[in-house]
Amino acid sequence: MSRGEDPVDDLKVTAPKTWATGAPAVGHALQYSLSQTSPRRTALTLLNLNQGKGIDCPGCAWPDPDPKHRPMNEYCENGAKHVNDEATSRRVTREFFQQHSVSELDEKSDYWLNQQGRLTEPMVKRSDSDFYEPISWDDALDLLAAELRALNSPNEALFYTSGRVSNEAAFLLQLFARAYGTNNLPDCSNMCHESSGSAMQETLGVGKGTVSLDDLHHCDLIFVIGQNPGTNHPRMLTALERAKHNGGEVVAVNPLPEAGLMRFKNPQKVRGVLGRGTAIADQFLQIRPGGDLALFKALNLLLLEAEDAAPGTVLDHEFIRTHTTRFKEFARQARELSWDEVHAATGLTRAEMEQVRDRVLASNSVIACWAMGLTQQKHGVATIREIVNFLMLRGNIGKPGAGACPVRGHSNVQGDRTMGIWERVPQSFLDSLEAEFGFAPPKEHGWDSVDSIRAMLDGRARFFLGVAGNFVRATPDSEVTEKAMRQCRLTAHISTKLNRSHTVCGETALILPTLGRSDRDVQGGVEQFVTVEDSMSMVHASFGRLEPASEALLSEVAILSRLARRTLGEDPAIPWEEFEANYDAIRDRISRVVPDFEDFNRRVADPAGFTLPNPVNSGDFRTPSGKAVFSSNDFEWLAAPDGYLVLQSLRSHDQWNTIPYANDDRYRGIHDARRVVMVNPADLDELGIADRSAVDLVSVWHDGVERRAPNFRVVAYPAARGSAAAYYPETNVLVPLDSVADVSNTPTSKGVIVRLEPVAGQD
Ligand SMILES: Nc1nc2c(c(=O)[nH]1)N[C@H]1C(S)=C(S)[C@@H](COP(=O)(O)OP(=O)(O)OC[C@H]3O[C@@H](n4cnc5c(=O)[nH]c(N)nc54)[C@H](O)[C@@H]3O)O[C@H]1N2
Ligand SMILES: Nc1nc2c(c(=O)[nH]1)N[C@H]1C(S)=C(S)[C@@H](COP(=O)(O)OP(=O)(O)OC[C@H]3O[C@@H](n4cnc5c(=O)[nH]c(N)nc54)[C@H](O)[C@@H]3O)O[C@H]1N2
Ligand code: SF4
Ligand SMILES: [Mo]
After folding, report:
1. Is the pTM of this model over 0.90?
2. Cβ of 569: how many Cβ atoms within 10 Å?
3. Residues with beta carbon < 5 A to ion ligand 4?
4. What is the pLDDT of residues 105-141, one digit of tens each?
5. Where are the domains of the chain?
6. Which CATH superfamily does the domain covering 194-406 fall into?
7. Is the pLDDT reported for residue 684 higher than 90?
8. Which of 211, 259, 455, 541 has the CB geometry, 3.0–4.6 Å to 215, for a possible disulfide?
């Protein structure tokens, strides 16, 4: 499948950048913004981005500094692009859908679909038609409600959420799904940080990060593992720069020498713009994909051996004794390591690891930050557990300047979970819902994203409602997933912009256009705001500032409230109408259902918002034993057979998840093409494949099915030996649905075994 995608022949390659986020970045953001909308709207969005009473950046989940220390332009190039992609002046109208059939739209690229602009009115594709046509809100919601009421069981319905959805809308969605009778609440987390939640819940008793921005600023040694902050969390570089300024060090662990990890030019400082910037990584470990479990097992053994050599000086015995269990079992297994295997798995030398050990021994506080490079691997959960072991050995959990920092993706993905968007939400949450609203929520777990696809495939699920996101492009095994989606009786999406999930749809399909976070949201004459929770558990308000893209748009809250009333009937115990009229009423309920949200409305009135407590930081480990758990993880890594490479699918600098903003990846020096695969020149030599030649990427899997992503261009790139990197979502077709991380069920998007097959007749 390669729909209307970029011709690879346009590819231009320049040297990868060794620094990130300097002056040109600001220029690029403005260029994109002005290509989407007027200078006035651009100015309005940018002046309000991340300010008190302003728009929370719809980009990543990196926290804002305290408002007292926040400069006027506290946003990054990518944040500016994301908000102006939403603020665009382009519109998708009913005439547009008259001109383009669904089949024709399905031939267009993801880029093209997004560039058409904001959706403006509800549309329906009926089962006997190949066109979307206008439908009134009342009729659209009646149609949905009738379908829901006609299902044989509530579990035939799936309610997907993407992490841009506000706390208020997320709370209503899960309330509606559970009152209707199902826990089928798959979300983008299932493809994202699920492995982090699984590993941390089990070992620390909490699924969220344990550090604050202040901890980062004052940390002695920060690990940045499997993460590309220069592109995906640009303002994290400011925090790393500050930590370095305070004397901290950074170790980066990545198969690619990512620009932001190497050097950072802070656009908010004149010195940053003009000078050489700050070197970020003091040590760069160019690891093979999937080698991180081996690395941390090795580091843990080195620490145990250092303790043997100088007893009582290396480990934090007090912490281990008071707060943890299973240390002995862990230590016994840790000593069984084979250095040959470690070397094969990581591609790193023992000397490099000993150097890291010495840095650790010289540091009173250590933070480990990580993202998709770890979570999207088969043994991702075990890897993160091993990192928790690593932190606990020296008491780097729950003390200032130290801790575990899974760096979240979508701006409110963490908040959505807090609000109960989780197919396996704890029983205590369900009990609170029951106490507050007087209905008995279903107890059995629902389906996550991968299981939802399986359920659609075999007819157990027939109804799909997506609240934001782009399910068919975010999920693995594109051909299989598309088939699953097309088998549904009805698919509906509450969306701001057109995407593939509108063109790969069920028999009947609905597009329900909604306000974005930057749009002014007025209910009953009163301006409303919504709230979000960032990666460091800070909750704050976001105010829409722009004139909405069309008069016909409804807010997510309004759509969900109206749908619930139509589906479930009026019920005084769940006052949907009140919720729609005034979001304070939703927050009052959140205060009573969700732990730590007491007095929500009053507390969120503070422009700084408030921080949710992390029990770990007061020595409260909510595991069955009441203690943090040392885990024993079997040695595992990704070995590609001869002639094969381990492919990771990742983001370019110019995309937001499933949506490319341009065919470039500026920091990596790739221009005008996305169907490219980056491979180490020595591997290309061994494989007998020439730089810039045309290849198909073919993945192999136990099921014997050959999955193929045709027509890629090879780019010789300083990637770790034995690895390859290509962009998501073009490569999702290669990830088998059954290739998932143990425990978390997250697709292994960073660990796909592939071969490069030269395209006949081309070189
Ligand atoms: N501009 C922009 N910002 C974004 C997004 C976006 O699409 N565009 N998406 C947002 C979302 S939802 C998320 S989840 C985050 C994602 O943020 P990241 O996790 O930074 O995103 P990826 O591009 O998937 O990059 C993964 C990184 O892991 C490395 N890696 C791959 N395999 C391995 C491995 O086995 N071991 C190690 N140590 N490293 C490995 C890759 O080389 C790459 O640097 O970004 C968020 N921010
Ligand atoms: N191969 C591979 N696959 C991956 C990944 C990978 O690294 N490799 N990463 C995974 C990760 S980490 C994630 S998080 C998922 C992302 O998966 P999703 O969150 O499902 O995808 P997005 O591309 O963020 O969704 C974009 C769409 O959201 C809609 N939208 C944007 N803003 C709003 C809003 O305010 N309200 C509403 N209602 N709609 C809105 C727009 O219509 C837009 O087209 O993809 C996953 N898939
Ligand atoms: S770092 Fe993330 S949240 Fe901050 S401005 Fe950039 S994209 Fe937005
Ligand atoms: Mo994500």
Report:
1. yes
2. 9
3. 192, 409
4. 999 999 999 999 999 999 999 999 999 999 999 999 9
5. 91-190+412-515+555-603, 194-406, 645-758
6. Dimethylsulfoxide Reductase, domain 2 (3.40.228.10)
7. yes
8. 211
